[in-house]
């Protein structure tokens, strides 16, 4: 499922929900709207959490690759032959 498909599904669900909102009993409109705000907020928080996790994993992988490169350079430097000067 691509993000475009997800956004299209969310848009159609919201449109369907708002189109049928006028059929609700007037006493139920406020709780239903509040519930919708909570659900949309939770979905936005979940998307932000997944994005933050992806950034953290990428950063950790980058630090690991950088550390490996430094270690390889240090090993190459320590094994290099140098002239002994008196």
Question: Topology of this protein?
Answer:
Layout: H1 3-19, H2 26-79
Oligomer: single chain
| Relative strand content | under 5%
Question: For the CA atoms, what is the radius of gyration?
Answer: 28 Å
Overall pLDDT: 86
Q: Looking at the structure, what is the overall shape? A: rod-shaped
Number of helices: 2
Secondary structural class = mainly alpha
Can you characterise this structure?
This protein has 86 residues and is mainly α. Helix content is 83%, strand content 0%. It has two helices and no strands. The protein has helices at 3-19, 26-79. The radius of gyration is 28 Å and the shape is rod-shaped.
Q: In a nutshell, what does this entry contain?
A:
The protein is mainly alpha-helical. Helix content is about 85%, strand content about 0%.
Key features of this structure:
single chain; 86 residues; mainly alpha; 2 helices
């Amino acid at each position: 499922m691509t993000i475009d498909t997800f956004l299209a599904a969310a848009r159609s669900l919201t449109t369907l929900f708002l189109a049928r909102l006028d059929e609700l009993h007037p006493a139920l409109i406020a709780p239903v709207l509040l519930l919708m705000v909570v659900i949309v907020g939770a979905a936005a928080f979940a998307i932000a959490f997944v994005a933050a996790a992806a950034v953290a994993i990428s950063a950790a992988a980058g630090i690991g690759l950088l550390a490996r490169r430094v270690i390889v350079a240090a090993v190459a430097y320590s094994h290099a032959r140098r002239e002994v000067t008196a």
